[in-house]
Design brief:
Shape: elongated
Order of helices and strands: EHEEEEEEEEEEH
Number of helices: 2
Low-confidence stretches: none
Structural class: mainly beta
Number of strands: 11
Distance between the termini: 70 Å
Mean pLDDT: 85
Helix content: 10-25%
Strand content: 35-45%
Radius of gyration: 23 Å
Largest sheet: 5 strands, antiparallel
Length: 181
Amino acid sequence: SKSLHEILVYRFRGLCYSEEKIHPEKIFSHFFQLLYEKNLAFNHDFLCKDFCLMTECGNYTILASTEKNDDSTFSDNPNALNCFTNLEDISFYVVALSNGEIKHKITFKTDFIHLAHNSGVYLFQDLFAVLSLQNQTIHIFHIKANGTLVPVQKLGMYCFEDDDHILSTQKKAEEQFTGRW
């Protein structure tokens, strides 16, 4: 919609040949019928107008919204880039195309994700990946048949959950070894 708060879903009526002239103001309604209008974003949250992904099954669409975040605190991730000045709260919605129901919503607080033309987000079959530039992390989600997003893995500072443990164990072993000399 023009307000960037709601989505409007239309059904294509099909092509039909008619001898009668269609008034220019009614051309769109001649070919498309409004199914529903659903408000997704509220207050200072705005839908990203050039971001939209369709799931492979065709039942869901993934939309994104952004809200300006004035929080000046930086991430506690040591690999985070603290050079972005326009951080936002970015939400992703999995919406059922049949009725506009929001099946799942995830929000990345105080982050920078490049949404224009789906540049920082990837969809392959039932896997949905989000690249957080602020935190230097790729978040991978599985899209279940009911439309919910299940976190699969985060690739960033560490690739596996136990990487921190393995690295700290190695560091202790190195300190013991170098302490002998």
